[in-house]
């Protein structure tokens, strides 16, 4: 199959297939709904009718700059990677799914041959083909073709929108696993954006007894408090305020910060996380706001503060679905805006997401 829904000619000869449409990124601040030809259905693939697709910060970044880190959009690309849908057709060897099943979709296809894949760290696969990461097309389309083993059946009490939210939630779950969050881990979270909030929800589900979340935005802090943060701290964007703000964070936490999650990735947020974390604790870098940072590593090193990197996720969908099914995590309040799939609504949805304000997660209903 065309990995990740790569645009390619071909459907079964003589079979009447409706024209598939997708949202293509064709230039800076330019999205167009255009035809998207699906690849042939391989024996282990499924064809999925998309029903819910969320907008991620990376999607907005590609729209604004046509690049993200070293990934550069050199030719038109279908956008979107947070998604769920309904199985319409299965390959000849697919045993675990049938047409009509509602599924959440893991968007990255690894090679399963390299040493990282064999070690189980497939999220680091150098050959990873990930939705809406050039040159791989994404999932904001009427239909896509994807490997069946990356499609996870949703229980009856989990909606398709919640299924799409398994993608951002997976980032938080993977971060909590990397940091070994448990019932004795007091957590600080830098950033109350979508990833900060899902990391907070995941940390609570993993048993963290106390969570303090930090942001510059009053609205997002109020959302964090509503979602269960034990305390919130408003900070500035001025790096000169770090020391004072660390004192405020310590007052809010009341106990030592065992693990800090930087869900922003700026000099200031990482410096604050390093300064606030107790000796022997951990700082987990989740947000990748800047490709390079200048931070005070030496003072953190002499306190033996470990710095842990996080990139995407691995083997998270079953646990995310179970957290949602059981009610341990409620992602519904994060979905603040909904749009249909028309040229006008696609443009409005991305404007809403890029504008910030009271938008947390913007979702398409196809």
Characterization of this structure:
The chain is α/β, with parallel strands linked by helices and 366 residues long. It has 2 domains: 168 residues, Quinone Oxidoreductase, Chain A, domain 1 (Alpha-Beta Complex); 138 residues, Rossmann fold (3-Layer(aba) Sandwich). The chain is built from 11 helices and 20 strands. Strands 3, 7, 8, 11, 12, 19 and 20 form a 7-stranded mixed β-sheet that branches. It has a 6-stranded parallel β-sheet with strand order 15-14-13-16-17-18, with helices on both faces. Helix 4 packs across helix 5 and helix 4 crosses helix 10. The two termini are 24 Å apart. The N terminus is likely disordered. This is Sorbitol dehydrogenase. Keywords: Metal-binding, NAD, Oxidoreductase, Zinc. Belongs to the zinc-containing alcohol dehydrogenase family. GO terms for molecular function: oxidoreductase activity, acting on the CH-OH group of donors, NAD or NADP as acceptor; zinc ion binding. It holds the Pfam family ADH_N.
Beta-strand segment tally:
20
Write the CATH fold name of the largest domain.
Quinone Oxidoreductase, Chain A, domain 1
Report how far apart the termini are.
Answer: 24 Å
Separate helix tally: 11
User: Which geometry do the CA atoms define?
Assistant: globular
Overall mean confidence score, pLDDT: 94
Helix content: 25-40%
When the domains are counted, the total is 2
Low-confidence regions: 1-16
Query: In terms of structural class, how would the helical and strand content be classed?
Result: alpha/beta
- Beta fraction: 25-35%
- Specify the CATH class of the largest domain: Alpha Beta
- What's the CATH H-level superfamily name of the largest domain? Medium-chain alcohol dehydrogenases, catalytic domain
CATH arch. level architecture of the largest domain: Alpha-Beta Complex
Report on the biggest sheet: 7 strands, mixed
Cα gyration radius (Å): 21 Å
